[in-house]
């Protein structure tokens, strides 16, 4: 169930994804929100330098492990423009973070990459429930997913 509040946080993730694209990075953005609704951490992809592990959800997991007690992590929500990849889903699980809400799914991203003729990812396109046991996940959100789709199209055009 995705609420109005969830949509606001997801829109911020799409904004961060667009910022990443404008800085020459891949368009993915994520935020960490406490049980009280406070935005604790936000980031976007930093893979343009060549390190393809620099995903915002991975940064969030590490930040949470360093700065939050286990019960605070379990009650926090991670919002993200694109569903966690297997690496980030595992990191999320290892640090015991709570709910995940995403604007677009990994399945959608995979379809868009194919449609754009982009190079396939070296990592299998698995969904969060294929990585995490009993995850609390919501998404995708069609209207926001379409915005993420457009960012992927812009990324692809910029590479032409
Ligand atoms: Zn990732």
Automatic annotation (TrEMBL):
All residue ranges annotated as the CMP/dCMP-type deaminase domain in the record: 4-120
Coiled coil residues, start to end: none
Span of the signal peptide: none
GO molecular function: catalytic activity
InterPro entries per record: CMP_dCMP_dom, Cytidine_deaminase-like
Alphabetized SUPFAM superfamilies for the sequence: Cytidine deaminase-like
Alphabetized PANTHER family for the sequence: CYTOSINE DEAMINASE FAMILY MEMBER (PTHR11079), TRNA(ADENINE(34)) DEAMINASE, CHLOROPLASTIC (PTHR11079:SF179)
Name of the protein in question: Cytidine/deoxycytidylate deaminase-like protein
């Amino acid at each position: 169930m995705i609420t109005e509040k969830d949509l606001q946080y997801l829109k911020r993730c799409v904004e961060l994804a667009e910022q990443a694209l404008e800085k020459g990075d891949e368009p993915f953005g994520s935020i960490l929100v406490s049980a009280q609704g406070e935005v604790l951490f936000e980031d976007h992809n930093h893979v343009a330098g060549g390190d393809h592990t620099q995903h915002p959800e991975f940064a969030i997991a590490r930040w949470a492990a360093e700065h939050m007690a286990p019960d605070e992590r379990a009650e926090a929500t991670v919002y993200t423009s694109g569903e966690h990849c297997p690496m980030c889903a595992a990191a999320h699980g290892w640090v015991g973070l709570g709910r995940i809400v995403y604007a677009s799914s990994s399945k959608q991203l995979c379809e868009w990459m194919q449609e754009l003729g982009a190079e396939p990812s070296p990592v299998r396109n698995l969904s969060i429930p294929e990585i995490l046991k009993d995850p609390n996940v919501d998404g995708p959100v069609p209207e926001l997913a379409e915005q993420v789709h457009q960012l992927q199209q812009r990324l692809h055009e910029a590479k032409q």
